[in-house]
Q: What sequence folds into this?
């Protein structure tokens, strides 16, 4: 690596070698996976999310199946041996955090998806105690309740953040969905309520219809670079206005995506689909490509370019706003050839 | 030394000691001993060490015969070795037991004594099994209580090491093995103090070793065998004193005093009962009671039964004894008396003759039988025995506890007698298996027993059904150790956890005056009273019961506990019973919840805590009940039921079977078929409802219904005239059936609510895809109408089997009458759909040999049985022999049929002229028979009949009817013989049915031989991949990576490929099926199997409660098993070879999903992930490898690869899912 170029970045108070960070994904479900990502050159790893609901579900279903049919029949008082202990609950996750901290040098960022007020704080504290350098609150919430107002939804996010903030001292990031009426306002409030960083945006799995069986099923599609534009736009808008670090996630696949993210104002750009698709060694490629691009264009550092294309710093701030949409439409109509109508 | 007091049952108490003092344990499941092996396996998987700091080696065997063989070998090579068994299991061990004793080998077998199958199987307790082992030369030590079961496990081991004679350590099955009691747990130091390491080393030194070789196990001749047999006498002579010595050492170490015979009672007793086993405790209690009333009575508890020490017995008997009753818990038909009786008589008569008897003159001695198959033995019965000893001419022999109105042997007794002290609080709980009542009660007694100074006892009674099983918990709490080894007669507290019980059983039968009654009622405090049946209301008023009401189901639902009302009801019990102060009780319940559920995760604990709090706020006293004007109790069975069902079966259903007299019961174990239809259990809260608008009449719901409650018919429109309101029918969707109407009905009172039918229904509403042609709806609103519809439906004519439709597909099969219905199987059972299908396809001409196991229990457990009869009165003839011999049993049936057909043919030949002379025209009433020119000779027509299809069968039936008509009037032995055999001329099929425990393990040798015999038998293996009936122990059908009992750490070897083994013969039809994966292939395979004139083997994937799945998704799991390649569907038909084709047809496609995707949907695989994730991952990878390898073999077979199967493994297909195929 050419020593002349400084790829380092700072995110959530952590000094990272460069802005390419694997986001929460199955890749971090094992120590081996985390080691491989470090070996591939990741500057930090966001662990897969600890889902409180999943823990609850596992625990209840274990209890259900261990007792189902038991104590009903004189010959079969139970159907399974009853071991001394189970690996249910957060223990496996926490143990992995501990092991990862001991095994790798890069930063380990925990990720938590709570379900109850008590759950958020309880598990956040445990993740901190396990040694995570920072924690990402993955507030995966689909507001389906017609009686829930936008304000209710916002309060839900803020309450979670405040509760956790009170309980833990490590840096906190909040991973958001893009579905807020006023994204900028929301970002501001989160930053003021104790979020050290904002991660934009959560990708929701969208269900699909199976017409053969007339069923609705989960449908997992990996992202592509097109999806970059939504977080890119919002980070560019928020940069400089909201005092928080930014992690860009969704649609990061190449060094160009990384560059765009950083220029919009992201401290780190996070990727998972690309690594799942092409393997963790893509991190090495992307970082090398990033460096080569910067060399070619004589950039000295990531810090130098960070936010350089944010709304505040581009020549045409309106390009990020709604008017831009209007103009886009009009530009089609005004096309003299008529071919684009 | 401070020893912990623990609440435990006899099995655990015994296993605890046995595990500590052995090195090798061979195990095999059998009720009621299975838990001992399960504990040993579990502790071993947890790496718990024995007394010498090493983890005992546990080996599951294929049968008890195998277990005893392995034990014999392990002993001969010097390990401290044990096993656990009961009943038929002990019988299978007898040959080795003779050897082990003959070689003077130190070992203890721990037995939970159980009945031996005779006129029927029974899983319950008596001494028939151990009495059958008397001649083996083993010492026998009887424990009477849970405490003694623990103590004697140690005493027996110490004695056998010292005396070299092997020991049977016996406790009463269920009564002791399953009673939960407070005992003082032995410490390791106690065991060390009793087990002499020098004797352990001596045992080791006697072992086979090539370093100091000798030969043991010679064959001896007339010259020396006899003397050699006598050579061990001295060891037997010495043993009683050795046992006495060990007992003395035990007393010195632990404090509890035991002797070969223990006497309790008046020192100057005149009447004495001699007894062994748990009844001794009841007699102990009764003797003290009678003694307090001034009676001179006593009881001798026999502890060391073999070798029988005359000396010690005579020392135990008071010199004042003038009359003795000897009680035996076994029956030896035709003997001069039962074993203990004979020993006592012999001892006394010898002693009197020699002048060594303490009482001088010969006392009167009578012998009686009691307690067979866990029949109650109460203080009332004990008193009656003492009374009988006062009679001028006491009965000898006698029985006690039953009413024998045939041979009049039974003694009368005062069933009202109750001697339990007031200080003992007694509680009875009526629950359902699924509601958690028993578990909660075990928790409650643990709280009292382990957390307070008080004593507690729990005994649990289960009914014989699996789905919707009723449980009755009997709990006692008191300040002193509890000796009452019988059910509670007068309860201070009665809890009815399911309101519906009021309608079906007398739940207040044992309520004491002024007792507290806790009712879980859906009607709220205000309306509960009016729903209680009148008779129960009157009983409540008469006894002045104090009533408390809670709607526990509502509370449970709100909290998210579903049907588990256990914690709620447990809290209510503590809140109102006064057993503990309320606040203390709540704190202790929560503490117990933490201990019980803590390891399953915080969520479970939280939910149960919520249940405790909610229970207290929802419990209310019903202050003034009102008059007894409630509804009448519905009849137990319909008035129209046959007499036997009304007078005998109904009594059993109602829980009054104990009162049935001897004369009520068949002498030879023969019972009427088709009785489940009279027992309406109304188990399901939701039942399927049919929507004819959407229905495509595919028949899938009818096919999968495990309880045959969904049925379809096609009928002439005219027959529907007069149908009850709301009875639905639709135009039929068969091309062949013209204007017949199709109707599908649900037996709403018999449904168990499993919803498998809804899951398989492919017909969805086009405007609302969530709605299907079959959907679940609450049962109560449709119950009455549903009953009327069902009755009307049953009376509609059946579609004739011999009409134009061919029953070779699922759609048509739905029209066949099921002859297996409403069994006691689990809700959503994966086995019964296959059994029912066989009954539909062939049941009117089937003989069924059924291996012991789930299928024999849901198929043959009284009171009511599901094998049914059709509208012509025909149906499967069913029997169960044993677990281990079912294939041979079925082959025997075939041999008879073959022989009878052959003989009948011979007779037809001999009688040809006389039969033909009678004319060839059949009588007009035999509709099916139209003789053609070619069969103008009835004899030829019968002999040459083509009976391959339903038409052929019907025609043959008509011919046989005609034959019988002609034979009726004929004289001569041959004509009479032929008449008695004529029915076998209609082709019969033999079905040999059983589970994987039978087919893969215990019965495999026989199955292999029977398949090899070439005879025309059909084997249906209901493969649940575990011993389901005994609670899920691993069999060789268990797959790699699955957790099962006896494989607590996950099974390490792949599933045995039974089908492939059978295929090696080349002439055996083999099919592997899974109804959920392909119902069409299942139907096809069964038809081919039956039609193949040779041995057939059908291995059927049967999802099971022991898999830890949502049973409603059972068929989906079957499909996933196929999709993963784990369960390939195939048929191997030797007939195809003659057609020049490959006999092997693979009916499923290459794997589409990885094994883990199928497996991890089941608790049996997931569990290991939760206990040992690394191990689970490793086993999953091996399992995938094994799937790949097997699939490759089958693919080659399908391609007709000529290479031997053994060489064709390996080369996993690229698309078989493997390690990297995770999604």
A:
């Amino acid at each position: 690596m050419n020593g002349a170029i400084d790829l380092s970045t700072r995110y959530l108070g952590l000094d990272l070698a460069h802005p390419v960070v694997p986001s929460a994904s199955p890749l971090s479900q094992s120590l081996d996976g985390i080691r491989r990502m470090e070996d591939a050159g990741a500057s930090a790893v966001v662990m897969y999310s600890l889902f409180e609901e999943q823990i609850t579900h596992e625990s209840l279903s274990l209890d259900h199946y261990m007792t189902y049919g038991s104590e009903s029949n004189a010959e079969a008082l139970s159907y399974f041996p009853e071991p001394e202990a189970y690996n249910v609950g957060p223990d496996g996750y926490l143990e992995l955090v501990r092991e990862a901290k001991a095994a790798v040098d890069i930063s380990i960022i925990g990720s938590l998806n709570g379900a109850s007020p008590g759950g958020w704080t309880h598990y956040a504290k445990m993740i901190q105690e396990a040694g995570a350098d920072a924690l990402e609150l993955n507030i995966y919430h689909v507001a389906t309740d017609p009686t829930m107002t936008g304000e209710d939804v916002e309060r839900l996010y803020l309450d979670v953040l405040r509760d956790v903030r009170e309980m833990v001292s490590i840096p906190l990031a909040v991973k958001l969905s893009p579905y807020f009426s006023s994204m900028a306002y929301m970002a501001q409030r989160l930053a003021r309520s104790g979020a050290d960083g904002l991660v934009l945006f959560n990708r929701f799995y969208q269900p699909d219809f199976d017409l053969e069986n007339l069923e609705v099923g989960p449908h997992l599609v990996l992202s592509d670079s097109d999806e970059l534009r939504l977080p890119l736009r919002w980070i560019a808008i928020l940069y400089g206005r909201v005092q928080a670090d930014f992690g860009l996630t969704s649609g990061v696949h190449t060094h160009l995506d990384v560059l765009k993210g950083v220029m919009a104002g992201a401290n780190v750009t996070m990727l998972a689909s690309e690594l799942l698709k092409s393997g963790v060694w893509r991190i090495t490629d992307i970082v090398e490509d990033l460096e080569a691009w910067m060399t070619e264009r004589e950039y000295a550092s990531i810090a130098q370019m960070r936010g350089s294309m944010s709304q505040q710093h581009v020549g045409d701030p309106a390009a990020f706003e709604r008017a831009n949409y209007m103009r886009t439409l009009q530009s089609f109509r005004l096309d003299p050839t008529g071919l684009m109508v | 030394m401070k020893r912990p007091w623990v609440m435990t049952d006899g099995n655990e108490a015994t296993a605890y000691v046995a595990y500590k003092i052995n090195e090798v344990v061979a195990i095999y499941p059998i009720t009621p001993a299975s838990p001992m092996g399960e504990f040993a396996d579990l502790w071993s998987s947890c790496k718990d060490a024995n007394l010498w700091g090493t983890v005992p080696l546990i080996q599951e065997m294929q049968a008890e015969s195998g277990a005893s063989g392995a034990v014999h070998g392990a002993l001969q090579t010097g390990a401290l070795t044990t096993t656990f068994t009961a009943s038929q299991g002990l019988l299978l061990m007898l040959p080795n037991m003779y050897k082990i004793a003959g070689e003077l080998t130190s070992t203890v077998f721990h037995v939970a004594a159980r009945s031996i199958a005779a006129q029927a199987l029974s899983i319950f307790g008596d001494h028939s099994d151990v009495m059958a082992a008397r001649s083996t030369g083993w010492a026998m030590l009887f424990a009477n209580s849970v405490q003694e079961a623990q103590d004697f496990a140690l005493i027996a081991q110490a004695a056998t090491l010292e005396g070299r004679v092997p020991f049977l350590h016996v406790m009463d099955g269920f009564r002791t093995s399953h009673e939960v009691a407070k005992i003082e747990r032995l410490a390791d130091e106690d065991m060390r103090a009793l087990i002499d390491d020098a004797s352990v080393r001596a045992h080791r030194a006697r072992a086979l070793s090539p370093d100091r070789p000798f030969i043991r196990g010679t064959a001896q001749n007339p010259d020396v065998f006899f003397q050699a047999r006598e050579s061990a006498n001295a060891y037997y002579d010495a043993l009683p004193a050795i046992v006495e010595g060990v007992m003395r050492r035990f007393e010195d170490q632990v404090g509890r005093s035991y002797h070969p015979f223990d006497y309790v009672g008046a020192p100057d007793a005149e009447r004495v009962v001699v007894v062994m086993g748990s009844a001794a405790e009841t007699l102990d209690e009764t003797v003290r009671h009678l003694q307090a009333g001034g009676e001179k009575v006593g009881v001798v508890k026999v502890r060391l039964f073999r070798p029988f020490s005359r000396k010690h017995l005579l020392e135990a008997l008071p010199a004042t004894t003038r009359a003795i009753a000897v009680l035996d818990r076994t029956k030896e038909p035709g003997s001069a008396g039962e074993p203990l009786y004979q020993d006592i008589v012999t001892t006394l008569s010898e002693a009197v003759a020699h002048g060594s008897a303490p009482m001088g003159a010969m006392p009167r001695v009578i012998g009686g039988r009691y307690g067979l198959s866990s029949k109650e033995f109460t203080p009332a019965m004990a008193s009656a025995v003492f009374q009988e000893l006062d009679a001028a001419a006491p009965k000898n022999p006698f029985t006690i506890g039953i009413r024998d109105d045939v041979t009049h042997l039974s003694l009368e007794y005062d069933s009202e007698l109750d001697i339990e002290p007031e200080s003992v609080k007694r509680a009875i709980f009526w629950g359902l298996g699924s509601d958690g009542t028993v578990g909660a009660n075990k928790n409650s007694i643990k709280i009292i027993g382990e957390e307070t100074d008080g004593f507690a006892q729990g005994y649990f009674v289960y009914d014989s059904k699996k789905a919707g099983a009723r449980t009755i918990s009997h709990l006692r709490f008191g300040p002193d150790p509890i000796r009452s080894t019988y059910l509670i007669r007068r309860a201070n507290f009665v809890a009815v956890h399911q309101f519906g019980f009021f309608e079906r059983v007398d739940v207040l039968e044992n309520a004491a005056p002024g007792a507290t009654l806790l009712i879980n009622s859906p009607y709220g405090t205000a309306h509960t009273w009016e729903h209680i049946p009148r008779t129960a209301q009157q009983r409540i008023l008469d006894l002045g019961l104090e009533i408390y009401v809670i709607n526990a189901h509502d509370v449970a639902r709100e909290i998210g506990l579903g049907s588990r009302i256990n914690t709620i009801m447990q809290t209510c019990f503590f809140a109102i019973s006064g057993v503990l102060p309320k606040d203390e009780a709540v704190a202790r319940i929560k503490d117990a919840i933490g201990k019980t559920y803590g390891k399953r995760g915080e969520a479970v604990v939280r939910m149960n805590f919520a249940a405790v709090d909610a229970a207290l706020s929802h419990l209310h006293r019903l202050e003034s009940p009102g008059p007894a004007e409630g509804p009448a109790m519905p009849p137990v069975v319909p008035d129209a039921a046959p007499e036997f069902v009304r007078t005998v079966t109904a009594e059993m259903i109602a829980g009054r079977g104990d009162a049935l007299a001897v004369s009520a019961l068949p002498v030879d174990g023969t019972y009427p078929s088709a009785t489940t239809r009279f027992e309406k259990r109304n188990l399901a809260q939701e039942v399927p409802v049919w929507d004819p608008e959407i229905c495509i009449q595919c028949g899938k719901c009818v096919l999968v219904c495990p309880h045959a409650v969904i049925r379809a018919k096609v009928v002439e429109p005219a027959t529907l005239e007069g149908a009850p309101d709301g009875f639905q029918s639709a135009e039929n969707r068969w091309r062949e059936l013209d204007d017949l109407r199709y109707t599908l009905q649900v037996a709403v009172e018999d449904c168990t609510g499993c919803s498998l039918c809804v899951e398989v229904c492919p017909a969805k509403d086009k405007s609302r895809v969530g709605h299907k042609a079959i959907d679940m709806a609450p049962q109560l609103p449709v119950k009455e109408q549903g009953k009327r519809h069902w009755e009307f439906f049953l009376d509609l004519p059946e579609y004739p089997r011999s009409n134009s439709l061919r029953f070779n597909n699922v759609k048509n099969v739905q029209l066949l009458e099921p002859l297996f219905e409403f069994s006691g199987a689990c809700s959503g059972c994966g086995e019964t759909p296959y059994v029912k299908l066989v009954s539909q396809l062939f049941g009117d001409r089937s003989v069924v040999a059924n291996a012991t196991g789930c299928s024999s229990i849901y198929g043959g457990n009284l009171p009511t049985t599901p094998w049914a009869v059709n509208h012509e009165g025909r149906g499967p003839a069913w029997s169960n022999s044993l677990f281990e011999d079912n294939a041979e049993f079925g082959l025997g049936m075939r041999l008879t049929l073959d022989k009878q057909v052959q003989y009948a043919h011979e007779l037809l030949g001999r009688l040809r002229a006389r039969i033909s002379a009678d004319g060839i025209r059949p009588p007009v009433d035999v509709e099916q028979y139209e003789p053609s020119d070619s069969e103008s000779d009835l004899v030829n027509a019968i002999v040459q009949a083509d009976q391959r299809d339903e038409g052929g069968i019907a025609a043959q039936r008509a011919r046989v009817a005609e034959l019988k008509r002609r034979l009726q009037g004929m004289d001569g032995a041959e004509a009479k013989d032929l008449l008695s055999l004529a029915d076998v001329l209609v082709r019969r099929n033999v079905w040999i049915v059983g589970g994987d425990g039978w087919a893969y393990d215990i019965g495999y040798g026989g199955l292999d031989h029977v398949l090899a015999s070439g005879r025309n038998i059909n084997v249906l293996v209901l493969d649940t991949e575990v011993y389901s009936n005994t609670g899920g122990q691993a069999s060789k059908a268990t797959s790699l990576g699955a957790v099962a009992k006896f494989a607590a750490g996950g099974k390490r070897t792949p599933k045995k490929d039974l089908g492939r083994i059978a295929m090696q013969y080349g002439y055996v039809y083999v099919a592997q099926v899974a109804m959920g994966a392909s119902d069409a292939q299942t139907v096809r395979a069964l038809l081919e199997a039956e039609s193949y004139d040779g041995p057939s083997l059908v291995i059927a994937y049967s999802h099971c409660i022991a898999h830890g799945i949502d049973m409603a998704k059972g068929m989906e799991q079957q499909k996933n098993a196929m999709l993963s390649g784990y369960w390939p569907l195939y048929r191997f038909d030797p007939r195809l070879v003659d057609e020049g084709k490959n006999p092997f047809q693979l009916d499923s496609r290459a794997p589409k999903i990885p094994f883990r995707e199928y497996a991890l949907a089941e608790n049996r695989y997931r569990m290991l992930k939760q206990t040992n994730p690394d191990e689970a991952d490793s086993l999953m990878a091996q399992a995938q490898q094994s799937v790949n390898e097997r699939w490759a073999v089958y693919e080659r077979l399908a391609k007709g690869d000529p290479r031997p199967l053994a060489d064709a493994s390996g080369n996993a297909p690229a698309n078989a899912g493997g390690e990297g195929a995770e999604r």
